[in-house]
Amino acid sequence: MSTSTPEAVKKLLENMQTDLRSLSMECKKKFPPVKEAAESGIVKIKTIAARNTDILASLKENSSEVVQPFLMGCGTKEPKITQLCLAAVQRLMTHEVVSEAAAGNVINMLWQLMENGLEELKLLQTVLVLLTTNTVVHDEILSKAIVLCFRLHFTKDNITNNTAAATVRQVVTVVFERMVAEDERFKGIVEQPTPVQGNTNRRSVSTLRPSAKDAYMLFQDLCQLVNADAPYWLVGMTEMTRTFGLELLESVLNDFPGVFLQHQEFSFLLKERVCPLVIKLFSPNIKFRQGSSGAASPAPVEKPYFPICMRLLRVVSVLIKHFYSLLVTECEIFLSLLVKFLDGEKPQWLRAVAVESVHRLCVQPHLLRSFCQSYDMKQHSTKVFRDIVNALGSFIQSLFIVPNTGNPAATNAPAVLYIYIYIYTHTHTRHLAMSV
């Protein structure tokens, strides 16, 4: 149902007056200033309703005054009053009658409630309603809303933690969806953006429009946080895990490849931030050898960490799948790493995860054809295609050579699966190579 129909507008005005009366009654004895603000709000609403003009536009124009009683109500920190006020603010947001200034005041109020540990689930719900129903929040206010969600993700309460994680994912998606919509609105307008030079730490990118700038700053800071560096835009972050950061990076790269292919600034982030980060985080997996110990080597080698490695390989798969044409040199490095992870001296779980990643790539004929053309068919290039096939063959053979010391049912099933993958991949790629 539309929120701009006469019936919906009439219902909104009635609900707002009811909310303000309830707020006035709740604050009558303990919080007289809030009571007075609520009564003034009722008068304001009646004045707006009496005008036979665009009521929604008038509400938005006066939204800072309209929401003020509810912000004051939240400032009381009384649970019942706070819940009433947040519900009223959400109703205003749903009807898109919140201005940029009013939205900034709301975010500041939510931040105060977050710092006091109050109504955490309601806070997340309010942020999500604001960002999904309106496009008035940008720049520092948007970053503050995102940081609020991140901070609630790292609370000790499991329900809040999981809800905040889902909210962060949705908010990140919304930021990039806004950019896609913005690009669509300006489709056909030719611009000549200035290429970004070097590893810039600028707080904004002058060549990008508002929504694109927000998306750029967000993605740049995700890279910073995964790299354990301080963010430039998400000021106030107190905690972050690499696993969650890598999941967010993978989601953005997989869901919005056009953003990175169409904008030079985002292509820059791919080449200068994402690829070096992935290679750096893969370092423990490259150096580690199965059975090696700190006593045998002069410098103990950090063991590969399964959660990080699994997510890194997913990111690599997405980079190769969507951005191969942009990252030919980088993809050569990634593919060589995958081959190294199939080495017999690597942990068995790492080899298994690497096989899965290789299989995701090998079921896409256009990628295999590109591998042959870009690498194997060039005289001084790595024979990536050949190395993948040989590594898979060696991996399958090792499954029969290594004695079965565990449960037969537990080891034979993976062997059958990997044999199928190898046969399918080997047959498919050989046919493809001949066609090239």
UniProtKB/TrEMBL annotation:
One GO term of the biological process aspect: protein transport
Mon2/Sec7/BIG1-like dimerisation and cyclophilin-binding domain span: 8-183
Residues of the signal peptide: none
Keywords attached to this Swiss-Prot or TrEMBL record, sorted alphabetically, are: Protein transport, Transport
Going by the entry's taxonomy, the superkingdom of the source organism is recorded as: Eukaryota
Question: Where is the Mon2/Sec7/BIG1-like HUS domain positioned along the sequence?
Answer: 212-384
Family as reported in the entry's similarity comment: Belongs to the MON2 family.
The molecule here is called: MON2 homolog, regulator of endosome-to-Golgi trafficking
Origin species, per record, is Salmo trutta
Q: Which gene encodes it?
A: MON2
